[in-house]
User: Which sequence fits this backbone?
DNA sequence: AAAAGTATGTTGAATTTTCAACAAAATCGG
DNA sequence: CCGATTTTGTTGAAAATTCAACATACTTTT
């Protein structure tokens, strides 16, 4: 596990956990590392929701696909980020979303009950873990509010501009990269891809923005 | 505070807290009760996010209104339910939503830092409170997933049917009441009210459902 | 370097939504 | 109980989205 310590130290779940406690803790939690090739499922919609995932390397995407085949992208997670924690913490039977690896990825899986319910060894770090988990859940809720703010807009143009404005604000610059290609961006904004492309062209023609591939610049 | 004990005992924040501890605890937390007339703001968009709200009586609605005046309804909270906890827990500067009383309401406000950071009295219930808060945040995330599932649908008809199906499932019956009037339902589904009314009429004509006011029946 | 596959942009037709305006029904206040 | 207000339903026109089909650009593989 040692080789992942640099990533884990950045993971909010382990905030305030001393370095030399980490190894013992992971053992106590029964943490395991699993590798996934590109486009493999980490979690499948409908499967049981016992584990919290932590991305160690690569990229994992949370999606849902409805009855008619419309894919909806919930979020992307990269190294150090947590996913699936809400379903595991709420102790629901099955997950309403899928998690797939966008690249070859390594993922740490921790059974959530090991975090929530104090082990017999009385390790003493459970309280800190639960506190960290709570913080993470609160932060994730804010991310959802942001996504709702974006998708509640009524037109493709407004959705896109709201999303790009948030990106610019987060980066602190009008020039930035987004983590989505065009189809993914459409699935994140919940709009039609070709309509999105058309709208981007229009915005470019009107001098509102410049873009090449995943790079955007607001003018 | 005694007169609210029946409500507070049903509040998930106080799960597993002994009855005779509750009074002392509320005092220690600096909980205060505030009354609001109909249509008053409990929280205003942009204000600081320090307090968790608990509805003691009445009804509180979380909304956001965008630049163009489109109102978006996030959720309704009735007696025993918590609101605003995510912003307080995440310790963000300001709230991105408003909370307004739909009826004359009484609300308990607790400064979140009093829950998160152990007090000098060493009361010993903070760990349980934090655990409960974590559970609540996880549950709320599931509610958000549900709202996203609904609003990610592309047509008014699909959004409505998805929402009604979820209602029916929760109640365990095809006959149920919804907590929204038509305008509120439209704002929750993020669609135009008149379009929603037209769609409901169509569904009625097609024998898919029956409805009078807030009562719906799926056929 | 060519071929195959993938991603992006473009277009027009069909569908759907929004918007505005109004009528009818229900509710509220005195 | 009546008048005033609010809610709901209806309609048609304008705007926007979706859908399908295709052309072009870009990547990857062999």
Assistant:
């Amino acid at each position: 596990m040692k080789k992942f310590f640099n990533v884990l130290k950045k993971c909010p779940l382990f905030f305030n956990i001393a370095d030399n406690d980490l190894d013992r803790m992971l053992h106590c939690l029964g943490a395991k590392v699993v590798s996934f090739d590109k486009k493999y499922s980490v979690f499948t919609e409908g499967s049981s929701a016992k584990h919290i995932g932590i991305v160690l390397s690569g990229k994992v995407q949370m999606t849902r696909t409805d009855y008619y085949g419309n894919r909806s992208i919930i979020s992307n997670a990269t190294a150090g980020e947590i996913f699936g924690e809400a379903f595991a913490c709420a102790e629901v039977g099955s997950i309403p979303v899928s998690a797939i690896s966008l690249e070859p990825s390594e993922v740490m899986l921790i059974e959530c009950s090991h975090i929530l319910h104090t082990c017999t060894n009385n390790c003493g770090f459970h309280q800190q873990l639960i506190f960290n988990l709570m913080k993470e859940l609160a932060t994730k809720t804010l991310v959802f509010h942001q996504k709702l703010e974006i998708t509640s807009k009524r037109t493709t143009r407004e959705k896109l501009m709201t999303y790009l404005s948030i990106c610019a604000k987060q980066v602190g610059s009008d020039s930035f990269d987004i983590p989505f290609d065009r189809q993914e961006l459409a699935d994140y904004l919940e709009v039609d891809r070709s309509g999105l492309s058309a709208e981007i062209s229009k915005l470019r023609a009107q001098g509102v923005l410049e873009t090449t591939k995943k790079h955007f610049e607001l003018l």
